[in-house]
Each structure stands twice: as C-alpha cells, then as structure tokens.
Amino acid sequence: MAQMLRQLISKGPNRINEARGFTLIEIIIAIAVSLIMIFAIGIAIESASRSSGGIERKVTAQQDARGALEIMALEIKMASYNPAFSTTIWRSDGNPGGANFCTTQSANQAYKGIQEATPNSITVEMDIAGGTDANGNSDGNGVLIGNPATELNEIIRYNFVQAGDDRYITRETNCGGGQPFLGDTIASGNPRTVRIINADFIPPIPVFRYFDGQATELLPIAASAGANQSNCLPGCTGTIRMVEITLAVETDEIDPSTGLTRRMIYKTRETLRNN
Asked: How far apart are CA 225 and CA 220, in angstroms?
C-alpha cells in the first residue's frame, strides 16, 4: 500500500502539467479565425442586401413601366370612339395642350379622334359620354366636350418631356395641364423609380409610331422616310389604324451591386378599331 501511495504522489505533478490550459498564441489564433469568419459572414449579408435592393428596384421599375404602358394602350385604342356617330365633335388640331384646344372645333374632322400625332406626343379624343354630361344632360349639338367640368377624360394627351436631366411622360385630360405620369422632375423632390430615355439613344427611339391599314409607317413630313414609310403627317392623320408605343426606361438610382443603372424597353401595338 505504501508503495502505491509513493507512485501516485510521484505522478501527481505530471498530471497537473498535462492538464494545462491554452497558450496565448493559441488564443490569438482562435480570435483571428473567429474575426475572419465574422467578417466573411458580414460581407455575405451586405452583398445579399445589395442584391435584394437591386432586385426590388428592378421589380418596381418594371411594374411602373408596364402599368403605364397598359394604361396608355387602353386609352389610345379608344381614340375616335363615337357611339352617336356625330361628324362635328372633334376638337381643334392647333396648339395641342392649350386651353383653346378643348373648346374649338377642329377644321379637320377627318382626323377624327387623333388630332395630334408626333413621335413624342399624341392627343386622342373619344365621346365616352355619348353627347351627354355626367348628369345625363344632352349637349344638344354633338360637341365632344359640352362641359369640361362634367364630361371628363374625353380628350387625353400624352407627351414625352426632355428638359435637362429630366425625362418623363406627362398625361393631360381635357386641357387641364400635363401631370407627370411616368417619372417626375428632379426639382419636385418626388421619388422616381424610372427615367424615360427614348431620346438618349442614337438615333432616338420614338415613343409613338403610326401605321395605316396596309402597315405603312406614317412619318412627319420633314422626317427621313425609307421603305414602307410615308412622309404625310399630320395631313394623313385620319388614315392611322395602328399606334406603336415604346418606352425605353432606366432605373433612376444606381444599382450598388453593379454601379450601373438598369435599362429596359417595353413595347406594344394597338389597333384603333374606332378609327
């Protein structure tokens, strides 16, 4: 027994030495590895956040552009809607957007519900009220706008505005003044998801293109025409049977994941069945 006690006592110090803790170097290495892992995780989270933000902005821009295009197409294809078959209801073809445009009868009734047709603007007219105002009162003389305060949205104008760094589409109803429809001015301070950049391409992309019943493109008289094109606008406005709408857009903010703006092009063609 005494021999066994002596052996245990003699091995005690060695066991204490064998049970020692971490050295300072080991602790430093462990901390360094942990910091590297935390830094890598932080970078991954930041990258995912940037990517998510970029995707969200792209989706928002797509929704805005597509929604605007659908509304424009829906209203433009209603041009010349005339359930009463009146022959003198179309408004003036002079000074589109001006105050007298909605109150002066057009000298070119053959233009029907498209009294303005340029590459960057279009004015469409329709007799939604059927010759009556919102209260059901007849205007009595086949006038499209008997009372601008009650026969609303019968004259609609879309116009592409390019001024300085501003690029946007305005929508105007019954000569009430153009309001930003897609995009906005920088000075307004309003958040803008997209800018309209049709004019930034070489050559510029027209917002509106016009075609007759034979699919011949109708161009302004001063424009250069090629095959299957005719320089006749505005004189041939009455022969327009199809309108093509093209919106070239870019996100207003820089995508932090790429450092670039996102560019997209949306296009549709609408047949003017009432024209």
From this structure: 9
Residue 14 CA, chain-centre distance (Å), reads: 79
Domain layout of the chain by residue ranges: 46-271
Buried-exposed string 63-89: b where 16+ CB fall within 10 A, e elsewhere: ebbeebbeebbebbbbbbbbeeebeeb
> What is the percentage of the chain residues whose pLDDT exceeds 90?
35
Residue for token pair 């019954």? 174
What number of other Cβ atoms are within 10 A of residue 138's Cβ? 13
Per DSSP, which regions of the chain are E strands?
Answer: 114-118, 121-125, 155-163, 166-173, 179-182, 194-196, 208-211, 217-220, 229-233, 242-251, 263-271
More reliable by pLDDT, 147 or 249? 249
Nearest to 162 by CA among 211, 196, 117, 128: 196
> What are the residues whose beta carbons fall under 8 Å from the beta carbon of 216, sequence distance 6 or more?
228, 229, 230
